[in-house]
Amino acid sequence: METIPRESEVLTKIYQEVEQRFTGVDDLAHGWEHVSRVYHLALYIAGQEGANQFIVGMAALMHDLGRAVPQNSTLHHADLSAKLATELLRTYQVPQDIQEAILHAIIAHSFSRNVEPRTLEARVVRDADRLDGLGASGIIRWAVTGTIRRDAQTRTYHPTDPFAEQHIPDDHRYMLDHFYSKLLKLSDAMSTKTGNELSQRRTAFMRTFLNELREELDL
């Protein structure tokens, strides 16, 4: 489903606006690179699934907008993103029903917010966001996020059980445990056929990475 000319113009302007807002954001895991990847993934999935590309594109561009402002708000980042997106949507006079669809997709993308997506467009955006947590991109983001969130007690992996075969995964203490507490489960949460197909390949790559690490640690 193609966007109409005015929608294409608005999408271009929002793309430029969001990219500008992320200038200087010091979070490689949730910055503009992530947003850009999710945007292109979402549009690809939308094309395969027959979703409205304007709604998908707008929501994907603004899904993490709340991360582009100083984190002094008590709002969840998805709610803050929706709040900021509302201001932009009004500026460009996006029709109310389209606004609501975009805002729902923004809120529903979040893993921790746990809002069930009720539209195809929201499912597409959520799948695209979760796909960026998988594969080679996901491994980069895992390493970056683990480094940012570490403290003096954080270790890369459990000293005697690196692959969480005997202990309950604790990704606050052991970075590698994040694969078992979240990342390897993302594939099961895909809600579009295209997202599921892409996630299988990316998850297989992550398992290859873990298998290589196992061999290196066994030497």
What does this structure look like?
- It is a single chain.
- With 219 residues, this protein is mostly helical.
- It has 2 domains: 1-116, Orthogonal Bundle (Cyclin A, domain 1), CATH 1.10.472; 133-219, Up-down Bundle (Methane Monooxygenase Hydroxylase, Chain G, domain 1), CATH 1.20.58.
- 59% of the residues lie in helices and 0% in strands.
- The chain is built from 9 helices and no strands.
- The termini are far apart.
The gist of it:
The chain is 59% helix and 0% strand. It has helices at 5-21, 32-49, 53-62, 77-91, 96-108, 120-131, 135-149, 177-181, 193-217.
Radius of gyration over C-alpha positions, nearest whole angstrom: 18 Å
Alpha-beta classification: mainly alpha
Percent range for helical residues?
A: 55-70%
What is the CATH class name of the largest domain?
Answer: Mainly Alpha
Task: Give the total of domains.
Answer: 2
Number of helical stretches of at least 4 residues:
9
- In total, the number of strands is 0
CATH superfamily of the largest domain: HD-domain/PDEase-like
Largest sheet: none
> How large is the share of residues in beta strands?
under 5%
Q: Which word captures the global form?
A: globular
Order of helices and strands: HHHHHHHHH
CATH architectural label of the largest domain: Orthogonal Bundle
Spans where pLDDT lies below 50 across 5 or more residues: none
CATH topology of the largest domain: Cyclin A, domain 1
User: How many angstroms does the end-to-end distance come to?
Assistant: 53 Å
Averaged pLDDT = 94
